[in-house]
Amino acid sequence: MSVPPVTLRRVFWRCLFLQAAWNRRGMQNLGFAYAIDPALRRLYADPGKRSEALRRHLATFNCHPYTAAAIVGGAIHHEERVAAGEEPAGAPLAYKQVLQGPLAAVGDGFFWAGLRPFFGVLAAVGTLLLGWPALVASLLVYNALHFWLRWTFFRAGYRTGDEVVVRFAALSLPSWASRLRDGGAVLCGVAAGVMALAAVGRLGPGAGALVLLAAAAGIVALGLRARLLPTAYAALGLGTVVGVMAQVFRGGK
Amino acid sequence: MDYLVVAVVAGLAAVERKGFLQAMLSRPVALAPIVGLALGDLRGGLLLGPPLELLWLGAVNMGASLPPNEALGTAAIAAAAVLSGQALGTGVTPAVAALAILLAGMLATLGRTTDRAIEEWNVRLAARAELLLDRGSPAAAVRENLYGMVLPFAVSALLAPAVAAVAVQIIPAVLREFPTLNSPLGWGWTALVGLAAAAGARAFRSARGIGLFAGAAAATFAAGWLVGGSR
């Protein structure tokens, strides 16, 4: 017996709530059980068997919320075989345990350290240069891309089961992440340049120099593992002192 | 009424940030304009969004680690700045933005502590789900997952407007009492945005990132300067 497409879509929708009750003991366990439940209901007409299946999905689970869609899909793939008596009941759990670590690493590296910050800076630079339309466009492109990937992962996991690893490898996400990180650093530089030019327009050439100086000092300080918020307050305070001096200097003239 | 709006937006952002969707709507670059729009000052929100995004670009929830709660910080900062700007009749100026970050920025750090407490609290939901399953109520068991979004919503809906309300009492009073501070605080804001760009570049952890960042900053500034100078 296979899970009908409408139920698969329902499971995918529920994957968006994977971290709703993230907890220190089972992490995304409750979210996983919530997501896969409609499929289990279809596969196990006997309430006892459904509860038993649900119980194995309440085991500790933690993965990247986007790439976890592949594991939810793959777990349904295995549950179909368990329900048909082709696999032992532990197969879906073993599948989850094997894949959660590697897919978490891929998801963190590509989405959290690459794609999302890249689009964050793109949206920031776009907003600085063009205003809200650029912000909206950046968010639309990011979400079109990320939802398409989430759905693709889910479908690939469901259709191919263990072979989903091959699909992930074919996407070369780590090398894309490296390019996105380089591109993001460039966009941060563009943002610094744009903000420096805006400061020149507002307060004069000295303010533009201050933006670039603060950026350089920030690179050094944060490289020395200075804490972010205290460093931000220090920049704010020192910049204000420079502003007082500029005011005094102008008043003296 | 304004604070009720802030509460709802901050609460929804807290849910979107981790519990549901994660579509960048709770990132500072989107959330600050949303708060601004909700309070009737989109332009003010757009002034705050880009530097806050750059500043907290590295605030990412990887594995079991917890970053500062940038959504909570942003909601409070944006609300404080927009409402103070409206009280002063100036809108969000760099001086207002600087004071808002000074007064409400720490909420992001406090947010990390509340996030930790929520994750501890959610252990009870998981335990309750197991109990309900034992009692033969699988539908009720999995529904416990949805209750996990209640506490993040409530915490942010309480803290963001509360901190914004305190800041709104202070910021207009300071700038009315000491109007000469406007220009120096504008310079302070200028230094802060420079630091924010650096924090953004650092967040990418690219081997060539610092060189690329410096080159792009210099090239953009020089190009803008040349284009501006030639006009």
Task: Spell out the helices and strands of chain B N to C.
Answer: HHHHHHHHHH
Number of domains of chain B: 1
Q: From the alpha-carbon coordinates, what is the Rg of chain B to the nearest angstrom?
A: 20 Å
Most strands sheet of chain A: none
Helix share bin of chain A: over 70%
Using DSSP, what is the number of strands of chain A? 0
Our estimate of the beta-strand percent of chain A is under 5%
Secondary structure category of chain A: mainly alpha
The rounded distance between the terminal residues' Cα atoms of chain A is 86 Å
As a percent range, the share of helical residues of chain B equals over 70%
What average pLDDT do the residues of chain B reach?
Answer: 96
Globally, the shape of chain B reads globular
Count of helical segments of chain B?
10
How many structurally independent domains of chain A? Answer: 2
Biggest interface reads:
A-B, 100 and 101 residues
Mean pLDDT reading of chain A:
96
* Unreliable runs of chain A: none
Oligomeric state: heterodimer
Name the shape of chain A in a single word: elongated
Poorly predicted residue ranges of chain B: none
Beta fraction of chain B? under 5%
Description of the molecule:
The complex is a heterodimer of chains A (253) and B (231). By secondary structure, chain A is mainly α. Helix content of chain A is 81%, strand content 0%. Chain B contains 10 helices and no strands. Chain B starts with a helix and ends with a helix. In chain B, helix 1 crosses helix 8 (150-177), helix 3 runs antiparallel to helix 4 and helix 4 (70-88) crosses helix 5 (94-104). The model of chain B has no long low-confidence stretch (mean pLDDT 96). Chain B has one domain (2-206). Chain B has helices at residues 2-19, 28-38, 42-55, 70-88, 94-104, 107-134, 138-147, 150-177, 182-203, 209-230. At the A-B interface, helix 2, helix 3, helix 5, helix 6 and helix 8 of A face helix 2, helix 3, helix 5, helix 6 and helix 7 of B.
